[in-house]
Design brief:
It holds the Pfam family DUF2229. This protein is α/β, with parallel strands linked by helices. It has 13 helices and ten strands. The chain folds into two domains: 150 residues; 139 residues, Uncharacterised protein family UPF0261, NN domain (Rossmann fold, 3-Layer(aba) Sandwich), CATH 3.40.50.12020. Helices cover 48% and strands 14% of the residues. The strands form three sheets. The chain has a four-stranded parallel sheet, with helices on one face. Helix 6 packs across helix 7 and helix 11 packs parallel to helix 12. It binds iron/sulfur cluster. Iron/sulfur cluster binds next to helix 3 and helix 12.
């Protein structure tokens, strides 16, 4: 049996887990290609206009993959951590896709609660049943996939640059180089190193979150705000770049919260959607890079932030 896994949304975080799990069940795993213009165009064609770019792109991946597999994974991610939630678009993603794209193959849409090994195993039991009736094989596949997941690493921490920025945003905007138009390479070519939130300890993030009037219940709001606040305190980078999806509710809150605490610390927001032009993005990055360079080489002019 061929199991299709679309390379959109949080694929960058769970691909090892899913690939090992379904391969160990005896299925052949097929994925869509890396995001490209054709996938974007398909996503825009099938998805509702009001959705954010990452959800549209997910639709594009599904549309390109659906003919190549016998069953397709449409992850309904509910929770990554206890007492926290993920964007509602993830909870309703299977319905969005199944109502927008015709002639879909059977799909795996069981809810994913990933806050513990036990809760994730509940998903594995439900999903595994669609591939094999043998619960022993499912259990073994899950154990191997979970181990692989624990060993998986992600994140960017460039070394050797005089100027560095914290790159913040949802993983599917940071790690999809088509979506962000090769932002990391562009920054590196301008002499700027990049650091992402995976290298900040969760304890430091939690400490920053405790300073807020109310604990956020959206996981990515907590992580992105906590990372930015920690960077502003440690001053271990020269600037912050936030890659945001146009129409994203959580991003609009996070950006305002970061603005509230960043003072005059360099902070650039890049909003992206399917109409974003590369030339405009380049101009904004180059202007930001120039400003960082001037500040670094003329430190007496740097006002204290906060
Ligand atoms: S968090 Fe924002 S960018 Fe991500 S799926 Fe939800 S609306 Fe889209």
């Amino acid at each position: 049996m061929k199991v299709g896994i679309p390379k959109g949304l949080l694929y960058c975080k769970y691909n090892d887990f899913l690939t090992v799990f379904f391969s160990e069940l005896g299925a052949e795993v097929v994925t869509s290609e890396e995001t490209n213009k054709e996938i974007l165009d398909e996503g825009v064609k099938y998805c509702v206009d009001e959705a954010c770019l990452p959800v549209k792109i997910f639709h594009g991946h599904v549309s390109k993959l659906k003919e190549k597999c016998d069953i397709i994974v449409l992850p309904r991610i509910m929770q990554l951590y206890k007492n926290e939630y993920i964007c509602p678009k993830f909870c309703g993603l299977p319905e969005m896709v199944l109502n927008s794209i015709d002639n879909m193959p059977p799909s795996i849409t069981d809810p994913i609660y990933a806050f513990s090994k036990k809760s994730l195993y509940n998903w594995a039991k439900a999903a595994g049943k669609k591939i094999t009736p043998n619960s022993f094989i499912v259990k073994n596949a899950f154990i191997k996939a979970y181990d692989k997941h624990l060993q998986s690493t992600s994140g960017i921490k460039d070394e050797g640059y005089d100027i560095n920025v914290a790159l913040i945003g949802h993983p599917y905007n940071i790690y999809d180089s088509y979506v962000n138009m090769n932002l990391v390479n562009k920054l590196n070519n301008l002499g700027i190193g990049v650091e992402t939130m995976e290298f900040t300890q969760s304890l430091s993030i939690d400490l920053e979150i405790e300073q807020l009037f109310k604990k956020p219940f959206w996981t990515y709001l907590k992580e992105n705000y906590g990372f930015a606040a920690n960077v502003l305190k440690e001053k271990n980078v020269e600037g912050i770049i936030y890659v945001s999806s146009f129409n994203c509710g959580t991003d609009s809150v996070i950006i305002e919260l970061i603005k509230n605490i960043s003072g005059s610390f360099p902070f650039l927001t890049l909003k992206i959607d399917e109409h974003t032009g590369e030339a405009g993005l380049n101009t904004r990055i180059e202007a930001f890079a120039d400003m960082l360079e001037r500040r670094v080489h003329n430190e007496s002019n740097i006002p204290t932030h906060g």
